[in-house]
Each structure stands twice: as C-alpha cells, then as structure tokens.
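Notes from the 1:1 (GR / supervisor)

We went over the backlog. Supervisor wanted to see one worked example end to end before approving the batch request, so GR pasted a single chain during the call. The sequence is below; no edits were made to it. Supervisor asked that the structure be written out right there so they could see what the output format looks like.
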Amino acid sequence: MEPLTTEKYFHIYNHANGTEKLFAEHENYLFFLRKYDQHISPVTDTFAYCLMPNHFHLLVRMKSEKELISLIESRPVFSRLEELKTQTEKECFLSNFLSKQFANLFSSYTQAFNRMFSRQGSLFVKNFKRTHVGDDSYFTQLVQYIHLNPVKHGFVKAPEDWQYSSYNIILSNKASLVKISEVIDWFDGLENFKFCHLPDQNLYQGSELWKS
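Structure output shown during the call:
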C-alpha cells in the first residue's frame, strides 16, 4: 500500500463492509464531516469530497513536514519523533501518523454509528484505499469524478442536486474545509469548473477512473 507522503496529493476512498451503509440518515453525513474536520483538516488540505450511502471519495494534499511537526509538538508522540535519527525514519513516522489520523476518523465515526443503530463491529473496509495524484490533468479529472459520483450511481441527475459533496460549497465560495480558490484556479475559473461538471459534457467519461 502506498504510504501517505507529506505535500503530496491523494485520492482517498473507502467502502462500507459488505452491503451495509456508511450513512443511513442526514445527520450521519453531517457528523462524519464534523469528525473529518476534527481529525483530518489539521493534517491535510481538502480539495473535493463526496459522501455516498455506502462509500466516500476525498481529494486531499498532505500538509508539509514542518506543519505536521508543529502539530505533533503538543502531543505525546513528539518524544518518539525526537528520537529518530534519519530522514527516512522521520518520513515513515509521519506517514504512519497521517494514516493514524484517518484511522481515528473511521473509529470515532463507527463508534457513534454503532451506538445510534445498536450494531457491533467494524463499519468500514479495513484498509482505506489511496492513489497518488501526480499531474494536473488527473487532479481535474478526480474533482469532476468525485462530484459526479452521485450522477454516475443514479442518485441525482446533476451534481448540484447532491448535498453531501463539495460541489455546491465550491460554487458558494463561502469559508469551508475545502480549498475553494485553489480548485477554481485548477479549472481556470468558475465558469469552466461548472462546464466540466455538466453530465452531458463529462470530459473524462471514457477514462479508466470513470469505468471503476
């Protein structure tokens, strides 16, 4: 599994176990986003997200080594970081720390979900998937793919009709956990961003990503 690396972009996604749902009610989606802001926003920059009933997609950039170390300084794990002698050891430590933040998100959400619905056991597939995003075209393709996911799966006819993604947040240009201005810049402006998200103008429908 590819390690999470500082200052790199990743497509992160996961699925519910079996045929279960991750989100059964409106409040589940909102609670997940609150937990996301608590556990993930401190260690990543978020560019797009979509929460679906049984899975989710994220496009994030890991914070820099300097930012992560500054965050860790106030935590007990900092003493372990100080003991590391090589850059490789430090990078491995930070990668594990980033993975742990995601694990904490999934664990805290699962515990609350289990209490609400009187269930037991894991809710998410054990190892969340991640793909390194290495070029500009793949970034824009992923943003579109993530926002059009509800259209792809037949829940809505247009991305603005799905309330559990970052699409409408980006259009609103209001302060949020999403780096709105950076996303719009990647698309060379808001009008092109909206054009690329028209279902009948899906520029990437033939890609391997869209077929997955």
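Supervisor's comment: The mean pLDDT is 91.
Batch request approved.
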